[in-house]
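To the team - molybdenum atom complex, inputs and output below.
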Amino acid sequence: MSDKKRGIHELYGKDPSTADDLVWGRSVDPITRRGFLTKGGLVAMSTAVGASIPFAHLMPGGLIPAAIAQTSQPFEIPGKEGLIVLNDRPVNAETPAHLLDDEVTPAKYLFVRNNGTPPITTDIDPDAWTVEIGGESATRTMSFTAAELKKKFKHYTYQLQLECGGNGRSEFVPPAAGNQWSIGAVGCPSWTGVRLKDVLEHVGINDDAVYVAYYGADKHVSSDPNKVPISRGVPVAKALEDETLIAWAMNGEDIPPMNGYPLRLVCGGWPGSVCGKWLRKIVVRNQVHDGPKMTGTSYRVPCKPVAPGSEVPTDEMCIIESMPVKSLITFPKSGLQHELGKKLALRGHAWAGDLEVHKVRVSIDFGATWQKAKLSAPANRLAWQRWSAEVEFPEAGYYEVWVRATDTAGRSQPMVLPGWNPKGYLNNACHRIALQVA
Ligand SMILES: Nc1nc2c(c(=O)[nH]1)N[C@H]1C(S)=C(S)[C@@H](COP(=O)(O)O)O[C@H]1N2
Ligand SMILES: [Mo]
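Output:
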């Protein structure tokens, strides 16, 4: 059964409409997006979900029934293991904290955040994939195949954090719409590619350049070819940093299909949304980029703090740049039983956007007192840092371990929640795990 479930997700991951047709004989009305089930399809779906479906005629097309999509935890995307699926159209899946324990995040544990339908890249020749560099502030327009990029420019490898701007959204009150990420939309794999800077300098950028933005090969979920699911960018200075890469490898292997194979941008320390996957085009802009998900409330927060639930005018919203300081407890797993009188070893990672982490502390008394953890240097700029500590418990009972990092500018994580914002971005509250001491 679980193989069958996985099969369904794979199928839907590629092309929801075709999958609908194949699995249920369901056709989708292009305007209402409702699915039309044949009689046989309805019987098959009712059998699969275990009951008749009174509102079957109102069910959207291209959607796997939740009964099937959500029962087989952990959800398996090809090449991934143990991820928790939040949405399957588009695919969004996060990693439980204890699976982020490796210093370098393995491919199977890197989260997936898709805004649209990924291109089918399984059968392509990765070296023949082309990227165009242009835009009104580029001196000329040039096209490179991945093979040419590899041949022409020097290769670099960096370990770079990738965290979705909405990571932690599920804790905001009042709630914010969007994927209800808990804490696992983050990872720190090692990336290999060429510096975006070397490529841009080769092409030439004009003095009036302001922003550098990307377009990918994914499609809008509506299947409308004129709509772009996401196109974001960064100011020129961030694009020209040494660590900003056009990458073709993750941990020494091809980038996984869902993480942007065969080429993606990696721009560490900023919201993951600036790291264009399935990279097709880079544009050098003479203004702040205005592609989909750059404007309005997307990846923007109130420039000044607001009361929870406020309506914030667009011109009082600022684009998120560096991500805030944050940390995770990756060992032990929340919910463990621990023997009284024994020391408990703890470890995890801490990161701070463009900055470094200065110190990490842990608490076993809900933040009343803190103990300093050991903290390692990052493998390179914009990589997360390993921390470890040992704690002892005074008596039997329920405890929580909290972790709190402070960046080199002296800013610490909030203990409960940071400032509310309309889209629920930047929740860098302390991570906590539960345990029973007996
Ligand atoms: N082309 C393209 N690039 C994209 C996205 C996307 O939907 N399409 N999602 C962005 C967002 S919001 C995030 S958080 C990261 C997620 O990267 P991952 O799926 O490899 O973890 O990719 C970014 N790059
Ligand atoms: Mo994101």
